[in-house]
Amino acid sequence: MRAVAPVLAAAALALAACSSSSKNPAITADPASRGVDTRDIEQLLVAKQKAQSPDFDVRDPSCPARIVVADGETFRCTVVVEGVVVPYQVTLRDVNENSKTAGYDLRPVKAILSIPKLVDALQRNSPGARIDCGPDRVKVLDPGATFQCTVTTAQGASQPVTLRVNDIDGNVSQV
Asked: Is the Cβ–Cβ distance between 86 and 113 less than 8 Å?
């Protein structure tokens, strides 16, 4: 089964991560408390994740109820993708004291892997093989984490293959 390993090792993928800063609408703080309601950020988080992974069920965003608006302030939010909780870091930037507004960056804290896309890419690189990475449609893993898939050749020989998450963008390679 040595022929499978080089084919899989060549498959590095960036899958379905959501990182954005350029076109997010500004948030507005309550002038008395300098606090802001995060519901708009929650709605944007769901919309951006749905745009990145339109075939997946995306729901249940959660951010702290109120945050203080200060340049560089960071906080965590989550969204549920296919039943898996996906953590995001939100960083406030370009705080305007006069208008009490701020921009923000949304970045996933972990790599978000679309398993159907991963399997499709691996199968394109290994014609005739069946690849099974388990029942989950989404994996949310730290860079450096590993997971296993099983490769079955057209002749029926099976071999477990360990893949490592290379970075937050979801690039993977064979171990």
From this structure: no
Tokens representing residue 120 in the block: 């499709």
Tell me the β-bridge partners of 12: none
Q: Reduced to 3 states, what is the DSSP secondary structure of residue 87?
A: strand
Same domain, 38 and 71: yes
Q: H or E element: which one contains 39?
A: helix 39-52
List b or e across 29-47, with b for residues whose CB sees 16 or more CB atoms inside 10 angstroms: beeeeeebebebbbebbbe
At 107, list the tokens: 């970045």
Q: How many other CB atoms sit within 10 Å of the CB of residue 3?
A: 9
Asked if 71 contacts 97 with a C-beta cutoff of 8 angstroms, the reply is no
Tell me, yes or no, whether 8 lies in a domain. Answer: yes
pLDDT digits (tens, 9 = 90+) for 36-65: 678 888 999 999 999 988 999 999 999 998
- Burial grade of 128 (CB within 10 A; 0-12, 13-18, 19 or more): exposed
pTM over 0.90: no
Residue with tokens 């029942």: 135
Domain residues for the domain of 9 are 4-15+113-174
Cα–Cα distance for residue pair 6/59, rounded to 1 Å? 38
For the CA atoms of 94, 74, 115, 134, the dihedral, rounded to the nearest 10 degrees, stands at -170
Using CA atoms, how far apart are residues 107 and 17, in angstroms rounded to an integer?
A: 8
